[in-house]
Amino acid sequence: MSDEEDDYMSDKFLAGLQEVRPSLVNNRAKKRLIEVETKQAENSKRQREIAKTYTVDNVRLQESLNKPITADNKGFQLLAKMGYKAGSGLGKQADARIDPIGFSIKNDRGGLGREAAIAELAAKRQELRLRKAGIQSVDEISTEAYRRRATQKAEERKLSYDLKRCQQTCESLDLAAGVTEPELDFFWPPKPIEPGTETDESESVACEAEPEEEKDEQYSGAEQLELLTSYLRTGYTFCYWCGTHYDSIEDLDSNCPGVTRDEH
To answer: Lesser CB count within 10 Å: N end or C end of the chain?
Structure first.
């Protein structure tokens, strides 16, 4: 074998097999793979050519629209016969439309109403976000209003956290002191209702016969926290804001900065 002849077991010869036409391949699977790859390459090339053609046509049309209609144009000659003069507007009024209405070529495959649907969807989502934030319209949005709402939400979260921790502390101290029931319902954390617990008919009838007891007054979260911290200070010489159990009332009054969070 001469040096100029190709070795049929070399990588060069095997790589050349991949460029063989599908009609010369005996393996059906490999033949089908070559056909699919060839069609994909042709489709990609065709799409690039179509996109390039659309771009060129759109640019050419926009350039044509920017140019005035010449006197040798058939449409201009027909308008001139009806009294049209170059530079004047069409219609009864002199200040009617002069420039032609612009347009652009649609290159994608989306429906004609898709852009309007997407715009309407975005507006609806914005409306829902504003509704959740308690804003009636976009005009109400401002930096000051946003900061005010953010501060209010942060205060509400902090109040809820402090109230929950204070309820847990009150329950622990009451149970350690032998108290089996909270002084007020909200002094202890709310107990979860176990599923399947139902009252008997006899109990419900007895409850209906008895006069209704006066319900506890309704307090806001800040008022509940104020009553709780006051109860802990007086009953157990414990300051929730300090997180300290003082030895006596005198020790509490002397070393505690105050009764509110701001004073600490």
So the answer is: N
Look up tokens 């390039």; give the residue.
Answer: 52
53-62 LR contacts (CB < 8 Å, sep 24+): 54/105, 54/107, 57/105, 58/104, 58/105, 61/103, 61/105, 62/102
List pLDDT tens digits, range 81-121: 887 777 777 766 655 666 666 666 666 666 667 778 888 88
As a 3-state breakdown, the chain gives helix, strand, coil percent values, each rounded to 5, of 55, 0, 40
Question: What is residue 239's three-state secondary structure?
Answer: strand
Q: State which amino acid sits at residue 156.
A: E
Q: Where are the domains of the chain?
A: 11-67, 117-148
From CA 249, how far away is CA 243, in angstroms rounded? 15
Q: Virtual CA dihedral for 45, 49, 54, 58, nearest 10 degrees?
A: 140
CB 252 within 8 A of CB 240: no
Q: Give me the phi and psi of 211, to 5 degrees please.
A: -65, 145
**What's the pTM?**
0.43
